[in-house]
Design brief:
The protein is mainly beta. 5% of the residues lie in helices and 49% in strands.
Length: 160
């Protein structure tokens, strides 16, 4: 955990922003030591990035440049990477990522179907069913921190 990044959870709100990342995205390419997905076994590799959006400072973390166009839709001035995890999941598994506000982001019910990875993602408060193409990304945001001065977002990129 990084010092100074975490604030109390005040009024959680969840907003969904779907975005596509072009082929050759980060999840499969940036982590060569992580075992690759196994399409035959229905195993999907997911890069899960936890992001803190705020009005403190300005700019987009260099490790989030691929999401910069999506951030233009929000009113926050600053986007910082808080954590990155690689999770490999098959049909009967669940992956979790702890969030700085004490909540947990869950990924489960992963199924490969017609060239897409279908799964359920979300927090304790809200779950969403999403469908991603290979190297596609979904950005889930809206967990308020610090009285509305910041929020958490989670970007999930699936590779298979």
């Amino acid at each position: 955990m990084r010092k100074g990044v975490f604030a109390a959870l005040i009024a959680p709100v969840l907003v969904l922003l779907l975005a596509a990342v072009p082929k050759g995205g980060r999840a499969a390419d940036s982590y060569p030591d992580v075992e690759k997905p196994d399409k035959d076994k229905g195993i999907v590799s997911m890069e899960v990035r936890v992001i803190r959006a705020s009005n403190e400072g300005s700019g987009v973390d260099p490790l989030l440049q691929d999401l910069q166009d999506r951030f233009a839709r929000f009113s926050w001035k600053s986007y910082k990477l808080v954590d990155t995890r690689i999770i490999r999941l098959g049909p009967d598994a669940e992956g979790t990522v702890p969030l700085p506000n004490g909540d947990v982001f869950r990924l489960r019910d992963v199924k490969l179907d017609g060239g897409r990875a279908r799964m359920t993602v979300g927090t304790n408060a809200v779950t969403l069913k999403v469908s991603l193409a290979d190297d596609g990304t979904v950005v889930v945001g809206g967990l308020k921190e610090g009285g509305g001065d910041s929020e958490l977002m989670v970007a999930v990129t699936a590779s298979f």
